[in-house]
Amino acid sequence: MSIEIRVPQLPESVADATLVAWRKQPGDAVSRDENLADLETDKVVLEVPAPVSGVLREIKVPAGTSVKSGDLLAVVDEGAAATTAKAAPAAAKAAAAKPAAATTIAPRTGPAARRVIEENNLAPAAIAGAAAGGRVTKNDARVAAASAAPAAPAAPVTTAAPAAGSARTAAPPVAAVPPAAAASGGRAEQRVPMTRLRARIAERLVQAQTTQALLTTFNEVDLSAVQELRARYKDSFDKKHGVKLGFMSFFVKASVEALKRFPVVNAAVENSDIIYHEFFDIGVAVSTERGLMVPVLRNADAMSFADVEKGIADFASRARAGSITLEDLTGGTFSITNGGTFGSLMSTPIVNAPQSAILGMHKIQERPMVVNGQVAIRPMMYLAVTYDHRIIDGREAVQFLVTIKDCLEDPGRLLLGV
């Protein structure tokens, strides 16, 4: 019995998707709920599961095609036991024609990592996963591709990386530079289309800067008390809750406290109205190979420190594996981004519209500070709040940031609500 595989119903805010890659080829046996293809939207990567077990008979849409909800993608013949025997000779020939490394993809890999593995004919079992549970990320696959010795003559020039002096490459190359190309000193270029996510990020950032009156205010915070508290309880916290006590939970809880005192920072502009949110959904920026994502911690005011840390760890893992959902990214009343993880000492973050403000964390750096008339070395961090000046005045933005500073320099405030 032939079963049609169609594009699943896309979220209401997503008009279409791009079929990034097929995970199975005609003649391959498939199992129920096994991923057949990856669909990339401007927000997330969706998988197309097989509704039944059988053999993939025909692919109707090639990779790289834009598709909409309900479009026919492929046809599966139900009943793997009946058709696998017929498909075996063809499958054996296909397997012989392809390098062995390209025929099997490690089960714990995201769509982006699988794509790199296939493009470079890598052996999945030979790639060490650096993420939790041994999961292979796109970066792991890239490192493996770069370290693999070329088994054939140099690839076409269009896939080579530019010389060290060139800065015109549109995107990082996936494979290593062939030795011959590197030695020739050529000035190669490659034109790579933006991914849908990258294009959407660009659109949202430009929209925020053209529709909002953005202004940034800065302050600095002494994290001595937070570091001391973490050092004192990190082991018992990890043992009890199964997650490490990081800095982000302190910043989320401090932000919620500040948002309660200054509701306009938690508000949004809609036409000529100001929408005041009486809930606190905090977006936490996560950097992935595909781009920046901002999954949302719902009702962060009701979450414990452990809940926040678990939520952020789960978001980060799923975002980098390509399994984050659209629901995880939808909404949010305020966002936090941490450029300090990459070494940034100071920056001006851009508001995640339609929100009206965003908190920027930065690198913790020891500096000499005057404390009670004495010079002392303290772990300091610059904080930045970018806000929409149409509804948030400078006085409110500055006091909001000072509230966060006070909560972090005396964490007891977060427990006592003072």
Structure description:
The chain has three domains: 2-144, OB fold (Dihydrolipoamide Acetyltransferase, E2P) (Beta Barrel), CATH 2.40.50; 157-193, no CATH class; 197-416, Chloramphenicol acetyltransferase-like domain (Chloramphenicol Acetyltransferase, 2-Layer Sandwich), CATH 3.30.559.10. The protein has helices spanning 80-97, 111-119, 138-147, 179-184, 196-211, 224-241, 248-261, 305-321, 326-329, 394-409, 412-416, and strands at 2-6, 17-22, 29-30, 35-40, 45-49, 54-59, 66-67, 72-78, 214-222, 268-270, 273-275, 282-284, 286-288, 291-293, 296-297, 334-338, 357-361, 365-371, 374-388. A hairpin with a 2-residue loop joins strand 13 (286-288) and strand 14 (291-293). Helices cover 32% and strands 23% of the residues. Residues 81-107 and 149-182 have low confidence and may be disordered. By secondary structure, it is an alpha+beta fold. The protein has eleven helices and 19 strands. Strands 9, 12, 15, 16, 17, 18 and 19 form a seven-stranded mixed sheet that branches.
Topology:
Layout: E1 2-6, E2 17-22, E3 29-30, E4 35-40, E5 45-49, E6 54-59, E7 66-67, E8 72-78, H1 80-97, H2 111-119, H3 138-147, H4 179-184, H5 196-211, E9 214-222, H6 224-241, H7 248-261, E10 268-270, E11 273-275, E12 282-284, E13 286-288, E14 291-293, E15 296-297, H8 305-321, H9 326-329, E16 334-338, E17 357-361, E18 365-371, E19 374-388, H10 394-409, H11 412-416
Parallel strand pairs: 12-16, 16-17
Antiparallel strand pairs: 1-8, 2-4, 2-7, 3-6, 4-5, 6-8, 9-19, 10-11, 12-15, 13-14, 17-19, 18-19
Helix pairs in contact: 2-3, 7-8, 7-10
